[in-house]
Amino acid sequence: QVQLVESGGGLVQPGSSLRLSCAASGFTFRTFGMAWFRQAPGKERELVATISTGSTTYYADSVKGRFTISRDNAKNTVYLQMNTLKPADTAVYYCNTMTYWGQGTQVTVSS
């Protein structure tokens, strides 16, 4: 069965960096696009970034220039490098492909 397991979240100060990882299994990873979403308290889940099978990327305006999505098909893993983090980036971050979701990893940006 499809499994997506996120890791790498934590509590950091504004301006810091974090790298999230999503380890995928149960499907042919290299043949599917991947995405990161996030959900802040009291808000709807929103798309953060996507990466296609050919590594074409898309970013939400709110993270463009600060976040980078990438994939390693040999490791069945998708990453989200987050730089210059802001308090507004505080959310649970979810990995997604097709109709499948990971359990989420908490990112908290606070001084």
Taking pLDDT < 50 over at least 5 consecutive residues as the criterion, the unreliable ranges are none
* Distance between the first and last residues' Cα: 40 Å
Order of helices and strands: EEEEEEEEEEE
- Strand tally is 11
Portion of residues in beta strands equals: over 45%
Overall pLDDT confidence: 97
The percent range for helix content is under 10%
The radius of gyration is 13 Å
| Count of DSSP-assigned helices | 0
- What general form does the structure show? globular
Structural category: mainly beta
> How many strands, which pairing sense, and closed or not: the largest β-sheet?
7 strands, mixed
Can you walk through the features of this model?
- The relative contact order is 0.32.
- By secondary structure, the chain is an all-beta fold.
- The protein has strands at residues 3-7, 10-12, 18-25, 34-39, 46-51, 57-59, 67-72, 77-82, 91-97, 100-101, 105-109.
- Helices cover 0% and strands 51% of the residues.
- The protein starts with a strand and ends with a strand.
- Strands 2, 4, 5, 6, 9, 10 and 11 form a 7-stranded mixed β-sheet that branches. A 4-stranded antiparallel β-sheet has the order 1-3-8-7, with no helix packed on it.
